TrEMBL record:
<dbReference type="Pfam" id="PF00389">
    <property type="entry name" value="2-Hacid_dh"/>
</dbReference>
<keyword id="KW-0520">NAD</keyword>
<dbReference type="GO" id="GO:0051287">
    <property type="term" value="F:NAD binding"/>
</dbReference>
<dbReference type="GO" id="GO:0016616">
    <property type="term" value="F:oxidoreductase activity, acting on the CH-OH group of donors, NAD or NADP as acceptor"/>
</dbReference>
<protein>
    <submittedName>
        <fullName>D-3-phosphoglycerate dehydrogenase</fullName>
    </submittedName>
</protein>
<feature type="domain" description="D-isomer specific 2-hydroxyacid dehydrogenase catalytic">
    <location>
        <begin position="8"/>
        <end position="315"/>
    </location>
</feature>
<dbReference type="InterPro" id="IPR006139">
    <property type="entry name" value="D-isomer_2_OHA_DH_cat_dom"/>
</dbReference>
<feature type="domain" description="D-isomer specific 2-hydroxyacid dehydrogenase NAD-binding">
    <location>
        <begin position="107"/>
        <end position="293"/>
    </location>
</feature>
<dbReference type="InterPro" id="IPR006140">
    <property type="entry name" value="D-isomer_DH_NAD-bd"/>
</dbReference>
<keyword id="KW-0560">Oxidoreductase</keyword>
<dbReference type="InterPro" id="IPR050418">
    <property type="entry name" value="D-iso_2-hydroxyacid_DH_PdxB"/>
</dbReference>
<dbReference type="Pfam" id="PF02826">
    <property type="entry name" value="2-Hacid_dh_C"/>
</dbReference>
<comment type="similarity">
    <text>Belongs to the D-isomer specific 2-hydroxyacid dehydrogenase family.</text>
</comment>
<dbReference type="InterPro" id="IPR036291">
    <property type="entry name" value="NAD(P)-bd_dom_sf"/>
</dbReference>
Length: 316
């Protein structure tokens, strides 16, 4: 039985699948050729990340398809309900990349409060001629300790982010319409741990109270943060989005950055992927990464082996 890992899969995942009797194909097939490739090669399982889309047209065109797998959490690039209605199993790995995404959130937070993203642009250009000027420009850093982090969406990734924030000595508040409260356990290297309860509050109160805001929500029909929401936030707020593009109104965000309402933003996802707007790319107050939240070796190993385990279990 053949598996097409069109957006790649870790070596550990390939080995686990091959041990289970599957042939793994890692050839990158263009979106418009996926259906033909699946049929011509008798592929039974298609694995994707965020790049490849498995919509109704592919599902209808591939009667031999038995499993669609998403290496990661969100499945907005797959027509999940339609696939299930056709008897196709749809699987994902919601827990495998939580820590990796949470660490990237803090990479952006640390970058923002210490201007690292801008400093790293300007030091190679001016470090030898304007050292004292740059030192003065980046001298007004902010500590995260003691500040309030607002977590919008307190699911697995939101909880992992909350744990890191608590470890830094931050106050954590959350807004989640599906999770009224959650016990968050912070575990330490020596086996000790502490547990705290986070009670969900309204989005409006979170926006008003938080010093920094991080989003952990699936794709939405509209914006979670737009002009209205930005207006009620604290002056000098920092905003990080390592969830999905399109949940922040980027035009409104740029205006808020330019006015000083928002101190900085950290973006791993964008409204227009894979071609973010130039106004975003050129803004010196935005720390940016190209949708790499789950892109750590450890996370990809977990994703690959978890997908393999699910596939083997389903196809036994």
């Amino acid at each position: 039985m053949k598996v097409l890992a069109n957006d790649g899969i870790s070596k550990s995942g390939i080995l686990a699948l091959e041990k289970g009797g599957f042939e793994v194909i890692t050839t990158k097939v263009a979106q418009e050729q996926v259906a033909n490739f699946v049929n011509e090669n008798n592929v039974s399982v298609v694995l994707v990340r965020s790049a490849t889309k498995v919509r109704k047209d592919i599902i209808d065109a591939c009667p031999g398809l038995k499993i669609i797998g998403r290496g990661g959490v969100g499945m907005d690039n797959i027509d999940v309900d339609y696939a299930k209605s056709k008897g196709i199993h749809v699987i994902n790995t919601p827990a495998s990349s939580s820590e990796s995404v949470a660490e990237l959130v803090f990479a952006h937070l640390f970058s923002g409060v210490r201007f690292l993203h801008d400093s790293n642009r300007n030091m190679p250009l001016e470090g030898d001629t304007n050292f004292e000027g740059l030192k003065k420009a980046y001298a007004n850093g902010i500590e995260l300790r003691g500040k309030t982090l607002g977590v919008v969406g307190i699911g697995r990734i939101g909880q992992a982010t909350a744990k890191m924030a608590l470890g830094l000595g931050m106050k954590v508040i959350a807004a989640d319409m599906f999770i009224p409260q959650i016990d968050v356990k912070v575990e330490f290297f020596d086996g000790q741990s502490i547990t705290t309860t986070i009670v969900s509050q309204s989005l409006e109160s979170l926006f008003k109270e938080a010093d920094f805001i991080t989003l952990h929500v699936p794709a939405q029909d509209g914006y979670i943060i737009g002009e209205k929401e930005l207006a009620i936030m604290k002056d000098g707020v920092g905003i990080v989005n390592c969830a999905r593009g399109g949940v922040i109104d980027e035009v409104a965000l740029v205006k808020a950055l330019d006015s000083g309402k928002v101190l900085f933003a950290g973006l791993d996802v964008f409204e227009n992927e894979p071609t973010p707007e130039m106004a975003i790319l050129m803004n010196h107050k935005i720390s940016m990464t190209p949708h790499i939240g789950a892109a750590t070796g450890e996370a990809q190993d977990r994703i690959g082996t978890e997908l393999a385990s699910q596939i083997i279990s389903l196809m036994k």
